[in-house]
Fold this protein.
Amino acid sequence: MKILVAIKRVADPNVKVRLRSDGSGLDLAAVKMTMNPFDEIAVEEAVRLREAGIASEVVVVSVGPEKATETLRTALAMGADRGLLVRTEATTEPLAVAKALSAVAGEEQPALILLGKQAVDDDCNQTGQMLAAKLGWPQATFASQLTVNGDRATVIREVDGGSQTLALALPAIVTADLRLNEPRYASLPNIMKAKKKPLEERQPSDYGLVIEERLEVVRLEEPPTRAAGIKVKSVAELVERLKTEAGVLA
Amino acid sequence: MIHADDGSLSQEQRMMRDSCRAFVDDAVTPFIRSNWQREWDMSPGERLPRSILEGAETIGVRTLGVPEAYGGVDLERETEVRTFALISEEIARGDSGLADKLVQNWKVSILLREFAPKHLQDKWFPRLLADPQFLLAHCLTEPRGASDRWLPYNVPEAAMHTKAVLKDGHWVINGRKQFISNGFDASLYVVYANTDTSVGMLQGTSSFLVPRDTPGLTVTKCNETMGCRFMNNGELVFEDCRVPADHLLVQNTALGSAGQYFRAGKIIQAAKNLGVGVACFERTADYVQNYVQGGRILIKHQAVALRLADMATRIEAVRALIERASRAVDEGHPDMDVLCNMAKVYASEEIMKVATHALELHGGNGAMLEFGIEKLFRDAAIFLHMDATVDVSRMKIIKTMFPATAGKYAGPEN
């Protein structure tokens, strides 16, 4: 069984990002980039299924800029077998990525496609769902547990107020939530070995696609800065302000 | 700034750096910060919990230098020293003692890879790979001298006191080694001993592989140090310690043959030192942007900002010299010996100043054990003399630059 894992290169969530001075977007020129953390979880799950003998091959794919090869290389160092970059310098919106992934799935014929539930840069949480619609495959999003048994998968999903268990017929789409697993580090020996693993680069046109930007960003603004705290003179004043200003006491 | 420029690194180097940093941030730094008392546990074996070395195993950082055929890491040889520098800096940013534990393994693994007969590699590399607690040590220094006496002078009078004699198919080693990194914990040692008293040390020193359980080898104590305390420095005594003849690694020219690895050692030393400096800067930059004094955060006070600028500038200068020196070694540049010593000595003095600023900028907190800044200060201090003192390093720089006129041996001791 082949697993396809889709990954995205994003700004490191531990790094503080700033807006460009003209407000047109984020200034990412000198920002450290990394694999979307939810995608790391998806890669880890796929590699575990291969290690358990359930999957036979793990292919990682990214739709993005040339530098996303580094992100793919990291996935190979985590244990994926083969990488594929569908190269575009355009801003990758969920629908365009879903179309590209659907084309890749047509060629690769995976039994399972794993994705992160969302990318931490735009927080769209749409690609997996759109891909399922394009392919007409069953989907289980926000997975916190995945079991594959023959041509069926069982997924426990995190939903508001509890969990939901779904049974799916393969091929299917599963998107990874935070608690699905704890991804491994790419170890130094595996980083060196990953150099020798195949990593192919394709153009969207190879699949008869044009990556379109359909969304227009109207405005971006920094979060408001937190106002400085104050010192109160007495307990009475504290209680008064908690009632009238903070609204935490009735 | 402060960290290595991504553009100067290869893709693999960046990935390795990222893995090391993630491991340090997830496992090492939280342990060091919340278990500061462990440094003062007087049972050396208990200080660093086994889980830390087991964690290091998940990034495969203990077995650099072990050939890939044995499951180790084969780095790109043309940038090997630069990569060693990068990784040792990252680990030392979490704890310089842990970094020291690991880098000894790399150095000795390279010696085994280059000089040990195949059947001994077949025996020891798998054991090293199998056990996360398996450490290696490199035994040069003796109570009567090392960098202060015999390393700078190639005359018979300055030779090592530890001697090895071939007798009945075995090398018989007698002598004492002290201040040996990993000496207290290691499972396998590379030991240097005099095998020809009539010549200088470069022509008369041999190296041997000595397993810890060899009769006649006694680990006598753990040397308690002011810094780098999570690496257990040890003292060893050899009394008619017999190893089979095939355990000889290099006969007579061991120090010269190992020279290229000592060069890497100086770079690694400087890089670990830099990691301590980076930790000082990160902790301090965070502190002065949060701690309020006189109604505003510290960094808004000009005197504080000036010191922070000085820390950053020194770190960048040290990094620039380490990068130049490591490139020189990787490329086999004729100036590499001088540059290695320069990087090592410069890093030790500059990072000491960086650590002093860190201590000062933390005020009273800087002196508190539980705050962890005084630990960085103690760790920085160790580098002034580990792997050659400041003065000896400078002397070697001038001896190498002016070989005809500088650095004559002052004469026999008696």
